[in-house]
Amino acid sequence: MGLVSRLLLLCLPLGLLVACDGTPTGQEVPETPAPATTQESDTSVVPQVTFGDISFTNTLPGTVAEGQTIAATSPDPSTPPGDETPEHILFEFQPYYPEVFQENPGFTLPQIAVYPRDQFATYGFEEEAATLEDILASQPDLETLETLPYLPEVEGDQLFHAAPTYLEFEGGTGIRYITAYGLDVSPLTTERVFYTFQGLTEDGRYISAVFPIETGLFTDAATLEGAEYNAFAARYEEYLAETRDRIATANPETGFTPPLTQLDALIESIQVNSP
Asked: How many domains is the chain built from?
């Protein structure tokens, strides 16, 4: 069954108020006590962030990155995908462009998570990690792949991936792209589209970074009904292809908030200081 067919089964045939999507919204899980994060406060330099054996340069002006250790949560098949994860390091960024993203709970939380891959089999993550490993080894044209790896799991389908590229950092490598997830056939809204980096470290860890972005290409809300909705659904695949192309051709410096160049620089500054 194709993507549109599967998604249509979840939608009302005569109308749709956009509310059904699989956008990751971050994790609310218990913390485990750990060493404090350090971030240089001198505004004349770009802050260096360190927590445990992970460090990076915070290239996002006005934000503070805080690191913490997130306790493991046991797998539970009765809960949505991604609710359970192994113990890991999580960096959160606040405030994050409040003039754009504040007061909208639908936006993805800006964060970088570092997972121990040796526990992935327990959580059903290993297949996705192995796919990423194969991609990094063979270096195919990312545009030709139907979907790209993403962890932790979220509900819904990966609707598209745009502007994919390989990025390297000290101690590892990975891929970055812009994407959105969904459970229904509906117009994309700003909060559903996000930047992500999925990478592997040389010492066996998995890095997943997620940052909301604003492009000016999407509406904040959309309601389609009756014949209008049916017409939209009939050309949904074409709509997604057009969306991908519009994102891919946008200027990486001026077409996004924050600029893709700033986010890429942050990822490329990651250092894994293995014992």
From this structure: 1
